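ok, trying the design again with the full structure, not the truncated one.
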């Protein structure tokens, strides 16, 4: 299969490499020459522009920062430049409105198109174990799933255009809220003289259990290994969580959704980010709630 890969950053670099590893011909483009050079080292070929990358492609994958980037790359370099038989898949996390607009323009021009944002960070991108949530027509899904396979642990069909983005921001809003709830509970447990490992034992086997407690516990030295055990390095950056919470709030405002806890979560992560901790894992917000930011390097 000939794949065009546009956007070779922290996520796209590893994803493009996994397509090359699977034996596909990957024409890679990024505005950063260093990112293109890394992709070439991983077995991709360098394209001089996005339009050049897509010219002969069977599948076009984009992994770009945000909605405006996806809109402009689709308008300037994909629609009308890729062959009509090409399958267009955007894996970036963007606003639902942009995803639907791009899908509408691409479909009107005769392309098959899907939004397929991912769950899992840079390590999962490198390992080829991302979870994809896909918005596309039923008839297109099997081809999307096959194209994403070298980069995926699981590919889930969420619904029609934009449904992948909707699933992603709803999931991450829930995660942001549940992590804050978990952090508040651990911080209060400490104030009440309850040892973190005892509280973990109780909460992980009681009705307070959730993924943020049992799998990604924000308290160091408790439960399975998490970013909390390595100074909150790696994992899912606070700035990324903040981006997704903003997308959720924007989407809720446009759709008339009521998301007061999502709004509160956005405000708390914004406060943490503004204090210079945007690169720390999002579970490090525990240290702010404990009043122990001095423990973060
Ligand atoms: P990144 O900033 O590392 O990479 C984005 C890349 O896009 C950069 O290399 C940039 O040069 C390139 N780019 C920007 N505009 C371009 C254009 N017009 N043409 C070609 N290349 C262009 O970001 P990332 O961490 O790889 O994230 C990519 C997407 O994946 C984002 O939407 C993000 O929200 C989402 N995401 C990230 C993570 C994560 O942990 N990093 C996890 C899940 C989803």
């Amino acid at each position: 299969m000939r794949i065009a890969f546009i956007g070779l950053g922290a996520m796209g670099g590893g994803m493009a490499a996994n397509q090359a590893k699977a034996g596909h011909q990957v024409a890679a483009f990024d505005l950063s020459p260093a990112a293109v050079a890394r992709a070439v080292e991983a077995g991709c070929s360098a394209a001089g522009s996005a339009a050049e990358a897509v010219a002969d492609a069977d599948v076009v994958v984009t992994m770009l920062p945000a909605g405006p980037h996806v809109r402009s790359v689709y308008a300037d370099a994909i629609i009308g430049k890729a062959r009509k038989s090409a399958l267009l898949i955007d894996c970036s996390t963007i606003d639902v409105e942009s995803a639907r607009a791009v899908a509408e323009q691409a479909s009107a021009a005769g392309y098959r198109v899907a939004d397929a944002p991912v769950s899992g960070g840079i390590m999962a991108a490198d390992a080829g174990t991302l979870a994809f949530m896909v918005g596309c027509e039923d008839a297109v899904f099997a081809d999307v799933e096959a194209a994403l396979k070298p980069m995926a642990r699981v590919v889930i069909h969420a619904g029609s255009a934009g449904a992948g983005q909707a699933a992603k921001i709803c999931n991450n809003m829930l995660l942001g809220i549940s992590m804050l709830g978990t952090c508040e509970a651990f911080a209060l447990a400490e104030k009440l003289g309850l040892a973190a490992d005892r509280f973990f034992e109780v909460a992980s086997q009681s009705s307070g259990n959730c993924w943020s407690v049992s799998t990604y516990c924000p308290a160091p030295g408790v439960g399975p290994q998490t970013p909390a055990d390595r100074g909150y390095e790696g994992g899912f950056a606070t700035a990324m969580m903040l981006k997704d919470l903003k997308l959720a709030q924007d989407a809720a405002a446009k759709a008339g959704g009521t998301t007061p806890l999502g709004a509160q979560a956005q405000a708390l992560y914004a406060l943490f980010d503004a204090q210079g901790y945007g690169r720390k894992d999002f579970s490090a917000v525990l240290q702010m709630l404990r009043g122990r930011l001095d423990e973060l390097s």
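Keeping the full-length input from now on. The CA atoms of residues 265 and 275 lie 16 Å apart.
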